[in-house]
Design brief:
about 375 residues, alpha/beta, 3 domains, 6-stranded mixed β-sheet, about 10% strand
Length: about 375
């Protein structure tokens, strides 16, 4: 077994040709999401084919990352991974729609293992010491350090063995079918990218007035423009805490050049003037829109809305107590507590009861039907 670092297209092409002939690969990605640079960026691709570990450098000018996409998108090649959600989101973001993913975190929880990191579950089940994590290191820096290379390789080198270890304890095909159905869901998930750099959130409203919220958004948008053009994370331009300070007291911008934590390039009178103009224009626009200096930006629900919220909570609580808790207790007895929690978490139960979860997996529907029958519970009374 070898670990090969690939940063040249001529080295990648024969690897791709070989991977196209396999039926199973282990996959992981290293990425940066607004930590060291702006945006959501792929920094390294790790692939293990059972014999060799290939570390493909997508930051190399001589690598065409998209040439790997057909391998990831081939439904006849199983992609074994662990906790693949963010990797999956990133691949969609860069234009790759992977198929046939086998997520071992899903498998582990359906086999009654408690939620755990890859490092911990490998050490527990395989007795392999994974060493010190390099997850939070700067994956943009080149050349990569030896410990980064080792860490990245270990993230895929043990996935096949971990899969074997997990599945050897399975009795019968029922749980294997559950794992299969859960993992097939990956083929139907699609991300549109709208939440990749969602930098303004509802919770940011806090106690701001309508006008203050309008100014806040204008300053956040400007910070984002600078971050993007400078290829720096937004928090490194100036802090959200400083934005709140300026929004609540616009005069505070006069101390711009004396404030701490401001990106050095913009810590000058020119940018102070730009910010003052942005604030002034935002305030004028807020006035033209009829926004209030006193009314809160975060609207309290009306009495009718509060009534509906209360009714919804009551409906969910009643369903939990009279239907889901008895069923979950039986599932815990038959399959284990971790399985019960994975199948019907509080969030999942709320989504089922309110009909906001879309289509429930077939195996979960069958489980509900089976246990409702065993316990003489009326499913239709709680699930519309």
């Amino acid at each position: 077994m070898s670990i090969r670092y690939i940063d040249r297209q001529k080295e990648l092409l024969p690897v791709i040709r070989h991977l196209e002939t396999t039926d199973q690969i282990a996959v992981d990605l290293e990425f940066d999401r607004n930590r060291y640079r702006y945006g959501f960026n792929l920094c390294l691709i790790q692939i293990f084919d059972g014999e060799d570990c290939h570390l493909v450098d997508p930051l190399s000018d001589d690598i065409r990352t998209q040439d790997l996409f057909p391998v990831f998108e081939d439904p006849d090649i199983e992609k074994v991974a662990f906790a693949f959600q963010e990797d999956h989101r990133l691949l969609h973001y860069i234009g790759c729609k992977p198929k046939n993913i086998y997520d071992l975190r899903i498998a582990s929880q359906l086999l009654n293992h408690p939620p755990a990191s890859l490092t911990n579950i490998i050490e527990d089940l395989l007795d392999v010491h994974m060493g010190k994590s390099s997850q939070d290191s700067n994956w943009f820096k080149r050349p990569l350090k030896k410990n980064q290379i080792v860490y990245a390789a270990k993230d895929v080198l043990h996935l096949f063995d971990l899969k074997k270890s997990l599945l050897k304890s399975v009795n019968g095909s029922e749980i294997l079918d559950w794992i299969e159905e859960e993992n097939r869901n990956w083929d139907h998930v699609s991300y549109d990218g709208s939440d990749i750099n969602n930098y303004i959130k509802e919770k940011d409203k806090k106690d701001l007035s309508e006008v203050e919220w309008h100014v806040f958004k204008a300053l956040m948008n400007y910070r984002e423009e600078i971050a993007k053009s400078s290829n720096r994370p937004s928090y490194q331009i100036f802090s959200k805490k400083l934005i709140y300070k300026i929004v609540e007291n616009p005069e505070a911008v006069k101390n711009w050049t004396d404030e701490k934590g401001i990106f050095r390039r913009i810590k000058n009178r020119r940018y102070q003037s730009i910010l003052q103009k942005i604030i002034s224009e935002a305030e004028q626009e807020a006035e033209s829109l009829g926004l209030s200096q006193s009314k809160p930006a975060r609207k309290s629900p009306s009495s009718e809305e509060m009534k509906k919220i209360h009714q919804r909570k009551q409906k969910i609580q009643k369903a939990k107590e009279e239907f889901f808790i008895p069923i979950k207790e039986k599932i815990s007895d038959d399959y284990g507590e971790e399985v019960s929690t994975f199948l019907f978490s509080n969030r999942t139960v709320a989504e089922i009861v309110t009909g906001s979860n879309g289509s429930l997996e077939t195996y979960k529907q069958k489980l509900l039907d089976r246990y409702a029958s065993d316990l003489n519970l009326d499913k239709n009374k709680f699930i519309g």
